[in-house]
Amino acid sequence: MSYVKYEQKGFIGTITIDREKALNALNSEVLNDLEAVIDSISIDDTRCVIITGAGQKSFVAGADIGEMCNKTRAEAEAFSARGNAVFRKIEKLPIPVIAAVNGFALGGGCELALSCDIRIASENAVFGQPEAGLAIVAGFGGTQRLARTIGVGKAKEMLYTCCKVKADEALKIGLVNAVYSSDQLMAECEKLAGKIAANAPIAVRATKKAINLGLQTDIDTGVQIEAAMHASCFETQDQKNAMTAFLEKRKPEPFVNK
Ligand code: DAK
């Protein structure tokens, strides 16, 4: 039985981490199943992915503490590398990924949300990096992506104090883009995914690549990356369709990803 479910509705794929009894904590099997699902996504048929957790209480309550407890230093290094490899695949997935954070997003759960492009939370969402209280360092990218997302000072506060950040504060500090009631969360994430999916897929993918690669480099290299991504959209069927439609004062035909 897989701990990760995948559902496709039109151009939108939804991944559900399904280990509700353990609040969707990430053990090795969950990570393997998550990677298998990520690997199976077809970017020809999918324009946006949503990741959420099963149930109403938890997105992901972290890496599995039972599995980690007795690890040796070498085993911990391997586990961290495993999680990092899977999260990096999510971050580098060519299409946008939305985290629908429906409850606890602690430790590896907060880190999973951070590997997504956009985070949308339910009102009962709680974020945190409790690792220092468990006498370890965050191991799935938290020290890196949290600082890049909410700024160094606030990230250090969260990581040093292990404080819990509720949805309203997460919104204030830029950790999430929006907050909805639990029963509205998925519908709102699907609406957002639908808006992304309605735009030209080649352009959206090139935009993601330009932002992600550009954030890791200096501005001169960054604008060169952007120029290359910009140019890559020309001569596509979708670009001709959209610009011709503008000039003819009409709506473009639906984009065809070509
Ligand atoms: N691992 C394993 N089981 C977990 C879990 C977790 N992270 N979180 C919850 N569970 C399980 C509980 O053990 C319980 O199982 P049973 O006792 O029913 O068998 C079930 O889920 C329900 O949890 P509770 O009974 O505790 O539910 P409550 O509503 O009372 O509390 C809670 C919910 C989320 C506040 C609480 O469960 C909690 O504090 N959970 C732990 C949260 C946490 O500390 N998460 C961060 C884990 S550390 C690294 C690699 C990775 C990482 C670090 C280093 N390297 C190898 C270097 C990442 C670290 C983390 O993510």
TrEMBL record:
The keyword rRNA processing does not apply. It is an enzyme of class 4 (lyase). Homotetramer. The keyword Protease does not apply. SUPFAM superfamilies: ClpP/crotonase. It catalyses: a short-chain (3S)-3-hydroxyacyl-CoA = a short-chain (2E)-enoyl-CoA + H2O. Its EC number is 4.2.1.150. Pathway: Lipid metabolism; butanoate metabolism. CDD domains: crotonase-like. This is short-chain-enoyl-CoA hydratase. It comes from the Bacteria. Keywords: Lyase. GO terms for biological process: fatty acid beta-oxidation. Belongs to the enoyl-CoA hydratase/isomerase family. Pfam families: ECH_1. The gene is echA8. GO terms for molecular function: 3-hydroxyacyl-CoA dehydratase activity.
